[in-house]
Amino acid sequence: LFQRAQEQAYFISAVNTLAQGRMVPVPGGVLIQDGGTLLGAVGISGDTSDNDEACAIAGIEAAG
Amino acid sequence: LTLRDELLSLRSDVAAKSVSTHALLFEEFLVREATAGRLRLPLAPIAPKALVHGHCHQKSFGAFKPVEQVLRLVPDLNVETIESSCCGMAGAFGYGADTYQASMDMAELSLLPTVRRADATTLIVADGTSCRHQIKDGAGRGALHVARVLAMSLDSAPSSPTPPLPQRNLSMAELTLDVARKILDAALAKGIEKELKPLVVTVLDVRGCVKVTAAQDGTSLMRAEIAHGKGYGALAMGMGSRRCSSARRSRPTSSVR
After folding, report:
1. Interchain CB distance below 8 Å, A41 and B231
2. Which of B8, B85, B135, B190 lies deepest, with the highest CB count within 10 Å?
């Protein structure tokens, strides 16, 4: 599992290089889904990442 | 040609001149795209031969050559120009009782005899509406605009090369501005309720394009970029950024930044 996780970490780093550094892989980015359909994403920054994420989830839940 | 020619008779300001300079005829546009290698039409053979009559306005503006060039895009079509002058209709000229005979005499000089000699498989092509009237009334043959010829050729193609839009694209519309605003407002309200530091909330659609974004008063310099990056990262990986994050955390400590 550790081996797998390490590969995953390099993978994320590599993908972010491909994405020209536009990804910020910390909590606070949440996908918006309707059933199984992906609609978009919310990103929040300002407080701790956990609090940011809680607000994002609250926002999505409020919109149904 | 209305935009290129007649517009300048109505007004001569810079805007009119700019429009006139940039206006392209349908055929000119297609020739330009074909020359640049950007035109990929699945054209199929429709007839062995096309007889083309140029409209006077096209000919006087040197705009007839593209008509022939576009017709030559149709496979196996032998494009031949009818050596004629004006068809004789000239707007309402051919309808006037005192000018009708002159109009028909002009048409009989070359255009109508040539059309009558054409066999049934030959397409008669004329972009001018009044030219087509004259051909129909004088020779009993329907003539086609170039666009109609291309449409026939496209319809004859075995199958369209353009695949139907994937279903996923249709659902893009489902994140409406209204829904995005509700998410934004509720997320900001949650931040206020929890008495958090000033937040930036960014809602992205499925393509990663910003739908709405808002910064509470007092946010620091990079907050908007970070918020965008979190949402963008979630979309890019197809997972919430918490899962991105746990994958990230498991990397060797020496490279964690």
Report:
1. yes
2. B135
